[in-house]
Each structure stands twice: as C-alpha cells, then as structure tokens.
UniProtKB/TrEMBL annotation:
Localization per record: Cell membrane
Protein name (record): histidine kinase
Lineage, broadest ranks: Bacteria, Bacillati, Actinomycetota, Actinomycetes, Micrococcales
Cross-referenced SUPFAM superfamilies: ATPase domain of HSP90 chaperone/DNA topoisomerase II/histidine kinase (SSF55874), Homodimeric domain of signal transducing histidine kinase (SSF47384)
One of the record's GO cellular component terms: plasma membrane
PROSITE patterns: HAMP, HIS_KIN
Keywords on record: Kinase, Membrane, Phosphoprotein, Transferase, Transmembrane, Transmembrane helix, Two-component regulatory system
Transmembrane residue ranges: 151-175
C-alpha cells in the first residue's frame, strides 16, 4: 500500500531539494575558488624557497647547499640524475624522479595519509638542467581546507533544515485556504441552494479556483435539477399512457370482436405514443451526452431538406387523410461549400420535429407549412412557418422546455419535440426562437454557426 504524502510535504521536500542543490553548487564553487587561492599561495611560497637554491646553483653548484627552513623540504637533482640534496619526508623521499617526470609545475602529491604541494623548478646551467623540488608540511593548508569543508557541510545541513522549516510553514500558510475549502466541501450538499465554497478577499489563484469550483457546483446543481425534473416529468408522462394501455388491454375479453378490435387499435395508438416519448427521451439524452455537434456542408443540408420534405409530404397524406396539408420549401444558399456546425441527421431531425409540431397544432384543420433555409458565410437560418393559429401566450414563453404542450384536447405530442430542437440548436452554436402570431400562425427559427476548420 502506497503511503500518502500530503501536498504540503511534497512542496517542502521539493523546495528543500532545490535549495540543497543550489547550496551544494555554491559550496562547490566556493571550495574550488578557495582551493585555487591555497594553491596559488603554496606556489608563491615554494617558488620563494626554490629561488634561494636556484641562485646557489647558478653561482656555484659545487658548494654545499644550505638546509631549508623549519617544515620546509627541498630536493636537488643534478643533470646526471644525482640527488645533491633530499630532505623530503618519508613518503616523498624516493619519489623525486617520479615527480620531475610529471613536469615543472606545482603538483598535488599524495603520500600515505597526507597530501603535499610539491613545486618543481628547473634551473638551466651550462652543464645541463638542474631540478629544485620544494615542499613543506601542508598541515596548515590541509587543516584550512578541512575546516572549510566541515563548515560548508554544517552550513549546508543547517541551511537545508532552516529552509525545510520555512518551506513547511510557508506552504502551510499558502495552503490554509485550500484546507478550508476542502473542509467546506465536505459539508456541502449538491442539492442545497446557497451553499458555496468560501472565496477569499485576495485576487489570487486560490480565489480563482474557488470561483471556478463554485461555478461548477452551480452548474452541477442546475443539471441535477434538470435531471430530477426530467425524471419527474417523464414518470408522469409515461404513467398516464401506461395506465391507459393497461385499461385498454383489460377491455379485450373476446366477448365482442368489434369492441376488441377497437380496443386493440386504440392500444396500438397508445403504444405508438409511448414509443415516441421513449424515442424523444433517448434523443435528449444523446444531445446531453455528445459534446461534438459535428458538421456538414450547405450542399448536404440542401439535399437533406429536399429529401426530407418529399418524405414528409407522403407521411402527412397518410397521417391526415381528408386534410389539405400544403408543405413546401424555399432555399437560398450563397455558397454551398460553407460548412456548418450540425450533422445532416440532426438537421433532418429538427425539420421532422418542427413540421410534426405544426401538424399537431393544426389539429384536424387544413394547414400550410413553409420550410425556409438560408445559408450565408456567417451561418445558416432554418425557419418553419405555419398558419395553424400560433402558440398560446402562456405556452409560447416556455415552448422549448421539456414536456410543455399546447392545451388543445386533440394535441397528441409528447412536449419534447421543441426541446430537442432547442438542444440541437444550442449544441450547434446557434439558438431557437419563436415568432408567434396569435390567432394566425407561428414561425420557429433555428440558427446554426459556421464550423471551425
């Protein structure tokens, strides 16, 4: 099981690691610079020692060389390889030739547990090249470097602890509003209005987060309300037809064939209504679930209009025998290559619902329905007009809500057709509106946006 690490701890660990890396880098730079200073100092001191013997060699190499000072060590090698003088400590005593082979420079030579700076100074004479090697007990320099290293480690550890403690408290102070929001969120009830996350007075990222979450909470509540209302309305709308269907089946007892045939015919009509309601609810759920509206060219929409109107003419003549249904269309397209934010099947579904709504509003009267499509480079406008008397004033304002139906007793719609139209229009970047002419007719206008390339 993985151990949970709080955000505060992760911030503290991460910032402390960054601080340690920065301090370690700075310490390395300081140590390298200090080592260079110590090396330069040693080179200057040892060069001063070799200068004394350089002068003696150039003046008379056969004379006895004076001994070096306290804690100083000198080795002098003649051109023939003879050691004329060697006061090196035990670890370096027999390594003069090896050190000379490394070149005339300041060398860092390890001897056992000690480290020595050895300076090799060549002296050119008529007899050849003499070499003067100088070193000294470097305990002081090594002690200084060791003390510096210990001090740097101590500063690094102390700095890491101080920075970790500071980061812990700073992160805690910065995350305190988040913890407050978390505790508040635990007590929130999605369905309860008015309860929101606290928003601080500061205009910072946490306040923006709280506002975003509050907006999400409001939208969730609105969606929950819509879902609850839809379930309630759907239950109510389905309960009545189911009760009617049950009663109609109970009337079929086989005693009267004519009555049984009438009951079966009415039951089929009720079942068809239930099927239409279920299909409409399914369409609404798909509209809510699918985020992409899709796209189609104006040419495809024109083909969809002409094909659908032909089919609706045939269906209306079969649906309303004895009625005069004048169904026509007008198309005005500036550019048939314009791509619009609506699928062709959704577009035909909108036409179906609007024409069906107009036919239902006309009851058993003759009706004239005109479908108009206009497409420009800015979008499309679909309008379905009828002369069926228009919407009731109290219904017109809520016609796009779910399960809102006209008051006509013969109206057989489910009250979902215009809700489907409004949902598809909104998903397509447009809108749906009603131009109502009370007592004359109505026009439902649906607009569609242009699809992004």
């Amino acid at each position: 099981m993985r151990r949970r690490i709080s955000l505060r701890a992760r911030i503290t660990i991460g910032s402390t690691l960054v601080a340690v890396l920065l301090l370690a880098g700075a310490s390395a730079i300081v140590y390298a610079h200090l080592t260079g200073i110590v090396a330069d100092k040693e080179r200057a001191i040892l060069h001063g020692i070799t200068e004394v013997y350089r002068g003696a060699i150039q003046e008379d190499p056969n004379e006895r060389f004076p001994p070096p000072g306290v804690k100083q060590h000198v080795a002098i090698v003649a051109p023939d390889g003879t050691e004329r003088m060697n006061t090196f400590p035990a670890g370096l005593l027999d390594r003069a030739t090896e050190i000379i082979a490394e070149g005339p420079r300041l060398q860092h030579v390890r001897a056992g547990s000690k480290t020595f700076f050895v300076y090799v100074d060549p002296v050119e004479t008529a007899d050849g090249t003499w070499y003067v090697l100088a070193t000294r007990d470097t305990d002081i320099a090594e002690d200084v470097l060791s003390d510096v290293v210990r001090l740097m480690v101590l500063v690094l550890a102390a700095g890491a602890l101080v920075f970790a403690a500071g980061s812990w408290f700073v992160a805690g102070a910065a995350l305190r509003p988040v913890d407050h929001m978390r505790r508040s969120a635990q007590t929130l009830v999605v369905s309860r209005r008015g309860e929101l996350l606290p928003v601080g007075d500061a205009h910072d990222d946490l306040a923006d987060l709280a506002r975003t979450l509050n907006d999400l909470l409001e939208r969730m509540r609105a969606a929950t309300d819509r879902e609850r209302q839809m379930v309630s309305d759907a239950s109510h709308e389905l309960r009545n037809p189911l009760a009617v269907l049950q009663a109609q089946f109970e009337l079929i007892d086989g005693s009267d064939a004519a009555a049984d045939a009438t009951a079966i015919r009415e039951a089929r009509a009720t079942l068809a209504r239930l099927t239409r309601i279920a299909d409409s609810l399914l369409q609404l759920s798909r509209i809510d679930a699918v985020g992409d509206a899709g796209s189609a060219t104006a040419e495809h929409l024109v083909d969809a209009v002409t094909d659908r109107i032909d089919r609706l003419r045939l269906q209306s003549s079969e649906r309303t025998p004895g009625r005069n249904v004048d169904l026509d269309f007008v198309i005005d397209v500036a550019d048939d290559r314009v791509r619009l934010r609506v699928r062709a099947d959704d577009f035909t579904r909108i036409i179906d619902n609007l024409v069906d709504n107009a036919l239902s509003a006309a009851e058993s009267e003759d009706v004239r329905i005109l479908v108009s499509l206009a497409v420009t480079s800015d979008g499309a406008r679909l309008a379905v007009s009828d002369d069926a008397g228009g919407f009731d004033p109290e219904v017109a304002d809520r016609a796009f809500e779910r399960f809102v139906r006209g008051r006509a007793p013969s109206y057989s719609g489910s009250g979902l057709g215009l809700a489907i139209v409004a949902g598809l229009a909104e998903k397509s970047g447009g809108e749906a509106l009603i131009e109502n002419r009370q007592g004359v007719g109505a026009t439902v206008v649906v607009t569609f946006g242009v699809a992004d390339d």
